Amino acid sequence: QLHRRGFRCLDGVDGSAGMLERARSTGLYQELRLCVLGREPLPAPAEHYDAVTVVGALGEGQVPSTVLPELLRVTKPGGFLCLTTRSSPSNLRYKAELEAALGRLEQRGAWQKLLAQEVEYWERATSEEESTQGTGYISGVVYIYQKCPVPNLEEG
Fold first, then answer.
1. What does the pLDDT look like over 111-151, one tens digit per residue?
2. Sign of torsion, CA 77 47 99 140?
3. Which residue from 48, 55, 114, 131 could staple onto 144, CB 3.0 to 4.6 Å apart?
4. Which SUPFAM superfamilies is this protein grouped with (predicted)?
5. pLDDT surpassing 50 at residue 156
6. In this structure, what is the dihedral angle of CA atoms 68, 17, 46, 7, given to the nearest 10 degrees?
7. What gap in Å lies between CA 88 and CA 76, rounded to an integer?
C-alpha cells in the first residue's frame, strides 16, 4: 500500500533470513537487513528515517517494548512512528507494558501521540480462545506518534 501511494525509499529489517527473502522477492525495498529488534541496534544512523513502522512484531514473545528508544533514535525529528500490537487475550500483558512505555516516552517529551486506534478485525485468529467474541478475528491497535523536534538551545 505504501508503494502504491508513492513511497519508494523503503528499507526493512527482520530477524528471519527467510522473511527477508520473501520481502526481497516483492521488489519493493531498497535495503533489507537481518536484525533482531530489541537485541541489537538497528542498522541505520541516527535521525535517518522520515517514518518508521513496526507491524506484526510488537507482541508477547516477539519484539520487547524496550525497542522503543532505538526506533526513536533512527527517526528524524518531526518524523513519524507507526506501531501496532494485538489486543488478543494472550497479548494483554504485553499491550499494557507497551502502552506504559509509550506513555513514559510521551511524558518525557520524546514524541507526541497522534493516534491510538482499535481495529476490531485486525487479523484472523488461530484459535477460538484468541478470537474476539467468536468473530474468528483478533483485534489490534494502531499507534501513530510524531517525534518531537530537538529544541534550539539559546546561547547565553
1. 999 999 999 999 888 888 787 777 889 999 999 999 998 65
2. positive
3. 114
4. S-adenosyl-L-methionine-dependent methyltransferases
5. no
6. -90
7. 32
Each domain of the chain, given as residue ranges in start order, spans 1-34, 44-147
Q: What is the pLDDT of residues 75-119, one digit of tens each?
A: 999 999 999 999 998 999 999 999 999 999 999 999 999 999 999
Contact 74, 80 (CB under 8 A): no
**Superfamily for domain range 44-147:** Vaccinia Virus protein VP39 (3.40.50.150)
15-39 in b/e form (b: 16+ CB < 10 A) is: beeeebeebeeeeeeeebeebebbe
Nine-digit cell at 14?
Answer: 527482520
C-alpha cell at 38: 530489541
- Residue 100 parent element (H or E): helix 92-107
For residue 3, give the 3-state DSSP assignment.
Answer: helix
How many residues does the structure list for the chain? 156
Lowest mean pLDDT among 24-38, 65-79, 119-133: 119-133
Alpha-carbon distances of 82 from 30, 88, 111, 114, rounded to whole Å: 20, 19, 12, 10
**Residue 63, all three cell numbers:** 519484539
Identity of residue 135: T
